[in-house]
Amino acid sequence: MLLCLAAALAADPIAAPAPAAPAAPDAPPVSRASLPSPISVPGAPYPEEALAAGQEASVLLEVAVTSTGEVSGAAVVESAGPEFDAGALAALRAARFTPGTDAAGEPVATVILYRYRYTLARVAKVSVQGRVLLADDSAVAGVALKIVGATGETRFATTSETGEFRFADLADGAWTLVLESPPLATVTTPLTVTAGTVTLAELRTRIEAPERGGVPGEVVVVEGRAISSEVSERTLSADEIAFLPGTNGDVVKAVQNLPGVARPPLGTGNLIIRGTAPEDSAAFLDGSRIPVVFHFGGLTTVINGGLLDEVSFVPGNASARYGRFLGGMVELGTRDEAPEGQHGTVQIDLYQATLFAESAIAPDAGLTLSLRRSYADAVLVPIFAAIPDFDIQAPRFFDIQARGQARVGATRVETMLTLSDDTFALIGEEDGAVQIGLSTNFWRGRLSALTELNGGWTNELRFSTGYDAQEFRFDVTGTARETNTAFSVREELALPVADGRRVGWRIGLDVDSGPQAFLYDVPAFGAKEEGEAFRFAPAAYVESTVQVGPVRLIPGLRVDGLLLDSDYANVAVDPRFSGRWAATETTAVRVGVGRYSQFPTIRQLLPDGDGNPDLHPASALQTSVGIDQELLGLLRIEATGFYNDLSDLVVGREDRISFFTGPPLGGPQDIDPYANDGTGRVYGGELLVRLDAPTTLALASLTVSKSTRVKRPGGDEVLFPYDQPVVLSVLGSQKLPRDWRIGARVRFGSGNPYTPVTNRVYDMGSRSFIPLYADSASDRLPDFFSLDVRVDKRWVRSWGEFSLYLDVQNATNAQNVEVQSWSYDYRTADPVTGLPIFPTFGLEAKW
Amino acid sequence: MVVLLLTACGGANDETLLDELRVLSMLPQAPEIAPGETTTIDVRIVDPDAVGYRALVWTCTRLGEDCLEDEEGRSPALATVADGRAAVPVTASMALAAVASDSPLPLVSVWALACAADACPLLDDVERGDTIDADVWADPTDWMSDLPIEGTSLALASVQVSTRSADTRHANPTITVSPEAPSVKPGGSVEVEVTITGELGSEARVWGYATAGGFERPSDRPNARLEARLDWIAPDAAGSADGFLLLVDDEGGGALWEGPLTAE
User: Fold this and answer.
1) Which residues of chain A are in CATH 3.30.2420.10 domains?
2) Taking the complete model, does pTM exceed 0.80, yes or no?
3) Cβ separation of B154 and A760 shorter than 8 Å?
4) Least CB-packed of A165, A438, A466, A692 within 10 Å?
5) Is the bond preceding residue A395 a cis peptide, omega within 30 degrees?
């Protein structure tokens, strides 16, 4: 039964006229009906602009209270402005009441009116307020804090969903603020409380579960897990990153704005990290390698950002936990904790739609589901219709993630299924056969358990299985295909440095195995190649963390092996070291040096695939030195110098068709057999400057580097095809009143090297021109420039929030050259330009 | 990959338009010769803008870094070109008897270089009778990069050498074209049918070229009746053009038809 009452209530309950109870014939008409009374109503944060302006306000809300006193819903009846409304709604949704009763005195569900008041007098009573953040500025919600006075008086508070907390009515004098909530690192901060003022404190902590990076500070955490514990000023939030222009709201794409990342060719989402090829870097999902990070064209990450707790970008000197790559890495980390309550998101824009839903099914247990489907094919049909004789199938992509989580005692158990599929095809109009087709898909299933053991140790056990395939079809009969079935296990014991413990450990096994196959049968591109093998790639690693005062030393060792059936066996031993010295509270110096090995592909190894079974792993000796500096509490500056020495690179057979990730360099090819003859070096500097003001985010990243290769001993040192000496990205996002937000990003990058054509020879046999090239990589494409802008508007409603955005990439329609091609006779350059002006309009609803 | 392929799909048949100085064809009158025998290479050079040019044709039977012809002593001379045509004798060295087999091998390379005005200093050297280093003839791609791309045309053809008896050697086919003088309204297209007589190698194509307008497709494979068809698309303005239909097979055989194409 729902009893509807109307009452204007202030912060203190005001009795309303009781409803008339039905009269009983044999008894006096005594009604026991009552209204709900508030037990606890959390304080809403006072809007900063209103506080500064001395503005008071009140919000009238309609609040549904269950028969157990919980709030099942709230809606604004009389608004005081979006920020006031949002705060009041959040406060009432978290409030507790005594249940209302009917005339018989039985608890019943009720709907009441509640006026939430923002008064300056109440604010003035607040003594200490602040936020709890991880080092990447993501908020820590629901964590308990205590503050202890000089007399031993102790008060408690819990952080809100935005990580905010406050203590009111504290006596003047010294207090100690304590965050002590495992697995978060304990933080203790002395404070002084003075009457009439509010002491601000921002606690920065970290999760003491296994760290994922190598060099502290080298790990640029975009969202989520942190690496340091300190009290600092207000800094970047993950929410703000999601609004960065040019990213279309994709959190992972924010990585592309960071130093160390070169601009990918042709607008693809490939990550070109510190002068290495995309295939030399790795992407992981919770420690399990995944073949791609982005869907076609780099538009969207293959994992819904709503599932992610962190995106760690490690441009170099990664932890011994990771291996089998020469360059950098990106780790997508999903949230450890099960969802609370029920939440959902619907996103729709010009080329894709996403549904995300999560629900708690029991305490510490929940389910999450995400579905995404593109309809870029429909949008692009008019463009592709210009191509005669073909129908277009796709391009389209979809991805699905389903996840279940539960806590069983000291163990967090999780299972997750991830599926991603991208398809594109040109279909012949006459015969219906695929003329050109490209598809990439993978799925992963995972079962994992993270157990807290005695003595601060944790044990992480993950089983993962899946299948990857990429296929290229050409000219009806031509097919190129690579497939990989993965069975992998990671078992890791970790003991973090914490609570006076100065030595931590990470010890693990990382086993990857499964059948792998390739087929290259495209007559137009050369002879057929085919091969398959069972891959068994075990690895073991150990890493210690030693904290000596302000100095943290992390030596590590990783040993990787690879066995292919009985044809191939090899081992790589990679010692690594990193360190960090917190010179002052605002200055830190970091250093890293280590070896990173990457095994040849099975196509390069198998004799029946024209491979060379004598190949051994290529390796990179990565070194880096950096300094982090905070200035005035608003500016954060990170500067890093690096030098990577590459050796034993596999070279040869450049005439073979392959799934390349960027435009070919052009020029003469190395068609000799595969050999470990290649060497290279990459060196440069990176600078990140970040301004975090209350309503403004500004970020500038600069990378200056050079990447060269020598294919064969005694050969010339030539520029690497992805070498971009200067990459500059400057972006800003400004929050405006009434929930508007605007942002812009400017990107500049050196053009990629290419090999120019100097003249040509006409071959009478093939009736075609054969180009004559200048020295390899002796010229560059024009510099790249792009201006991206974004406008967001949000509305908060009783059921949740709703937002619209316009994201315009390449707003000036700059004609950036991505590939240098030539006319059929090589007389004139015929450059291929990249993305034209690309506006995207979308909407999002959250509840 | 897809982006590159899609970009390759556009602007198809510019290559049928002859709009610069070019060595268009080099057809040996006998596509397969025995060691010690000589054949004549018919070189066809087009100069649609009438810039004027000189041409040099030479042979090279590669011996590692050098040419066999240099060991036997030679002095390449400028080819005599009249109306874009040159007939240059090519001899297969007797030394090839040691390596030639029953299967024809493209052992003798024939190079032709056409240069406008003063574009190629090498031609001045040859004209003066200067001594030229032997490696210049062995691999002209080494120095071709130093020449301007406009006003120069370097082409490469091969002559098959074998010890097969004369009656079993591959011979050139002949072609006839219908209509003999294709004509169409400006901007229109006309089908040109090529009929082939003689034997072809296992692969053959007929290529179309014109000094105005262009062919819809650059080439066509002959059908079982040894017929091929190409459509000439006339320019928008009335006038005549030089048309060329060139049959080439994979054993060095070929035939060239040339005639007027008229838009009226």
Assistant:
1) 2-118
2) no
3) yes
4) A692
5) yes
